[in-house]
Amino acid sequence: MTLADIPQVHAIDALSFSLPWPENSYRFELTENPSTLALIAELTTPNDAQTIIGMSVTWLIIDEAHIATIAIHPEYRGHGYGKQLLRETLRQSIQRGAVLAALEVRENNLIAQQMYLEFGFEIVGRRFKYYKDNDEDALLMSLTKMRPESLTRWDDKGIL
Predict the structure, then answer these.
(1) What is the pTM (predicted TM-score) of this model?
(2) Which of 49, 54, 88, 93 could form a disulfide with 72 if both were Cys (CB 3.0 to 4.6 A apart)?
């Protein structure tokens, strides 16, 4: 992700979440936070232009990858792009020394929860009334024992 990507990334965020990050938060992550891993997912259009279809922001803290946000544009969901983006996020986190990953997910976001479970995440806790727009709980999910071999395990299980 680059500064030039922020308007498209923010648009995906706003389409995906009821509490999107402000654009200046992405700017901060890219310019001020050395612990940030910020990725985009792109597709090539028929006229060979690149269009951003997804994004993730992960904070690498010692040996943990905390996935702060991850989303695919609604028009591109259901085609495996979310799995590809999550896999790449985890791959790059492993390369940077992460041995576990953590995230929060809305209690009612069953599709995302299922994807995380496929990668081996487990529900390890709950943050009550975490989301201020509707007081929905967040489920805490964690993936432990991440190693380069994890990528092979995901390949063997058919995870993109």
Answers:
(1) 0.91
(2) 54
